[in-house]
């Protein structure tokens, strides 16, 4: 991540649910900036502009916040969304420094198609890595093109950028290639066996 957006916000002096509701009615998002080495800063920011930035830059977006002339380089740590409207209700931003290493979860995306007649089962959608904060990848891709049945892709097989290292378990299975009906066939066999056992019990 070579560049980052800058957005202006205002420091918040009022807190609580009532104050937060008033901000949301004014199309503002309440939020906080925090880190181990600073006092938590409460701010508000325009909903439309911030929503656009997060949608464009992803869940680990790096954003420079200009709070009334004071600039803070931050990374998105948590987003609270309204369950009905999906509007952002609150933001947690983590203050960072250039060159800092951070632990983040990055989406894992499959590309390509496995061998004919097979399907790919994705067991995990996120991978935990440590990365330079300015070079966090938006996603990690797994190429499943022409992979055969019984192939598994482990965390240790993921192709990470040079700025990142794996933090999660190396043996975690991210993708399994299987026959499309293997799971349903297994379930059918189990159901048939259960039915036969029930019939024997009834006969007794």
What do these coordinates show?
This protein is of the alpha+beta class. It folds into two domains: 6-96, Ribosomal Protein L25, Chain P (Beta Barrel), CATH 2.40.240.10; 103-184, Ribosomal protein L25, C-terminal domain (RNA Polymerase Alpha Subunit, Chain A, domain 2, Beta Complex), CATH 2.170.120.20. It is 21% helix and 43% strand. The chain contains three helices and 13 strands. The chain has helices at residues 17-25, 47-57, 182-203, and strands spanning 6-11, 28-35, 38-46, 62-67, 70-81, 88-95, 101-111, 119-122, 126-132, 140-143, 152-154, 164-166, 173-178. The strands form three sheets. Strands 1-3-2-6-5-4 form a six-stranded mixed beta barrel. Strand 2 and strand 3 form a beta hairpin. The model is unreliable at 183-189 (pLDDT under 50).
Layout of secondary structure:
Blueprint: E1 6-11, H1 17-25, E2 28-35, E3 38-46, H2 47-57, E4 62-67, E5 70-81, E6 88-95, E7 101-111, E8 119-122, E9 126-132, E10 140-143, E11 152-154, E12 164-166, E13 173-178, H3 182-203
Parallel strand pairs: 1-4, 2-6, 7-10
Antiparallel strand pairs: 1-3, 2-3, 4-5, 5-6, 7-9, 8-13, 9-12, 11-13
Keywords summarizing the entry:
about 200 residues; alpha+beta; Ribosomal Protein L25, Chain P; RNA Polymerase Alpha Subunit, Chain A, domain 2; 2 domains; 3 helices
Concise account of the structure shown:
With 204 residues, this protein is of the alpha+beta class. The protein contains three helices and 13 strands; from the N terminus they run βαββαββββββββββα. A hairpin with a 2-residue loop joins strand 2 (28-35) and strand 3.
